[in-house]
Amino acid sequence: MRTSPRPPVTPGRTAPSPNPSRSSQAPACSGPSASSLPHRRLPVRRRALAILSTVLLCATACAGPQPDPPMTRAPEPTGPVPGVARNAPLHAVDPGLVAAARDLPETYPGSAPREDDPTARVTLGRTSPGDEDYRHGSVGLSLESTDLADPRLGEHNDDLVSILQSLHEPTLRFGGNSTDRRFFFTSSDEPIPTNWPLVEGEKITKVTPADLERVAALAHRTGTSVILSANLARYDPDRAADLAAHARAAFGDRLVGLMIGNEPNGFHRGSDDPLNVKGPEWNRTVYARQLTAYARAVHRKVPHLRIVAPGAYSDPWWEVAAGAPGTAPFALALHQYPLSECGTRWTRQKPTVTNAVAPQTRERVDALVSRARSVADEHRVPLWITETSLSSCSGGNQITGTLAAAVYQADYSVRVQALAAERVTAHSSLGPCRGGPPMSPLCSDGTVGSPGERFGLRANGLALALIASIPQGTMTPARTGSEDLTAFAVTHADGSTSLVLSDFRDPATAGPRTTMVTTPGPVQRVTQSQLRGGSWRATAPAGDAADAPGSPEGPSAGERATDAAAPGAASSYPADPRVALSVENALRPTADGAVSVDGYGLPITPPADRPEVAGVRSGATSFAVSLPPGTTTVLTIETKHATARPSATASPSGDGTPAPKATSGTPRATTRSGGQ
């Protein structure tokens, strides 16, 4: 019996009942033959599941003639997973069933160390009462406030439900530049204002209580927490309070905070900046006074709703926001985009592959988050990173959609939690894969002018899903001796540990590296999952997943040939044109060299169903694993004897290696979301 933790199955993820409105294809009336069994010996749990499914199907088909009620049609034929309807969306199926159908090997390929390979060491410590919690909901997505009005954002969009469920009770934050420039909330159907300053091509978006209710249905279905934002640039505390009241009615306790404005440190950038929303009189003193007025108006309507501010990358603005009177309960919001030098200055902050994987970038991340944490600790408030990405530069560049950005995102998502950030949301877009914001973790089919309803994940989106698959636990000290290998560990209630290892060596020039992991207690077994790709510039096939069936921009002929040979190939029946993230697509391996997790996209295989690391000796206190360059690997280490989970949490310990180094005098970028 396996003892490794598995994320709980969210209600609605069980296999749907057969649809009686279509004709059936009955299974053959025979037991499982040798030729019908998988080519390898499945783990006990999967083998039992496969045999039970076959027996149930055969028993149903072979029970002999049964009288049918009048006008009752035969059940719909199942797809590649027994008992699951064809083209079922991923959110309707237990990920363990998909993992079993993928027929993963018992031992992870390439995990066995080889002689003469270079070596590295990782040492795990023990948990202590001072260690930070790792929470479900800590990893999530940030969208623009105007996206609240997008009709695709609802519980009936199967792909969005699947994506949010893959993040395991995430945080969904609505904010961004649109909040103070194009976002207009009204509960009384007021006309859209006509006197707001707009950049050419922009328009104001009206959001109503009906929009909040639609998004709330999605949040309730997926277990998602929500942060909304109020327009601060168009000073109106009463409107913010009205937004808060209707949001509380719609979201209930899933509304965890209301941000007041977005990046107020950028409201005035000089006389000629097109992004100005305030005049030269704008300063931190005025901001603090207005923040207090908003908070008091909101709390008159919704007492105890957490106020979130300032959503900035600047220390003085953190201090002013955290010290503003009347804002409690409060969360300090940080925004971070370390490679946002979009011009020619500050070479180390340009969005290049070299900078994306450089230790100096991780050191700057640590330095900024540590400073923000100090402010949060001083004022005894939580630290939330409500908007982040590797870069905020518009358009494509070396890192957009790449493995380099994905490994960075995986490392960042757990790194900042070790530094006491309770929530972290990667800035995203509902725009199309082709022509939309290229750093967004998710994207849709269609065009910029007419985006579609099918959604896929880019490489950094797969990285988020991999990290989100780690069960709740306590951040545990983990050390390495190499600046190009980082380690973060989470210990769980059953005594097992998830170890996240990110290897920042270049896949084009480096080979596998034997990594010796030393643990504080005896190990029973270790399973593995791995984010990887053929090169730093490799991408995930999000665009192919989101393209409608038959689209001229769909998969190439070579990819279609690969798909046809994959488990669950559905050449005999058409795909559902409304769903990209279906079971059938989940069983198609990605093309060679593309960014994937274990060779596939969603769903991420649950820890209990992952292949084992080769050669782990039960009872030993160390083991070796071979890590390819350019990867993020999650190892689930099951202990021989479970230990109790510490209950107290306070200050953090156990951040990645090397230790954070403050970089004084680093120039501050002038882009909207700021490098540092």
Walk me through this protein's architecture.
The protein has 676 residues and is of the alpha/beta class. It has 14 helices and 23 strands. An 8-stranded parallel β-barrel has the order 3-4-7-8-9-10-11-12, surrounded by 6 helices. Strands 2-15-17-18-23-20-21 form a 7-stranded antiparallel β-sheet, with helices on one face. Strands 16-1-19-22 form a 4-stranded mixed β-sheet, with no helix packed on it. β11, α10 and β12 (421-427) form a beta-alpha-beta unit.
Outline of this structure?
The chain is built from 14 helices and 23 strands. With about 675 residues, the chain is an alpha/beta fold.
Q: What is the arithmetic mean of pLDDT?
A: 83
**Largest sheet strand order:** 3-4-7-8-9-10-11-12
> Spans with pLDDT under 50 lasting ≥5 residues?
1-63, 552-571, 642-676
- Please tell me how large the radius of gyration is: 25 Å
State the helicity in percent bands.
10-25%
Total strands: 23
- Identify the overall geometry: globular
What's the N-to-C terminus distance?
49 Å
Roughly what fraction of the amino acids lie in strands? Answer: 15-25%
- The chain-level structural class is alpha/beta
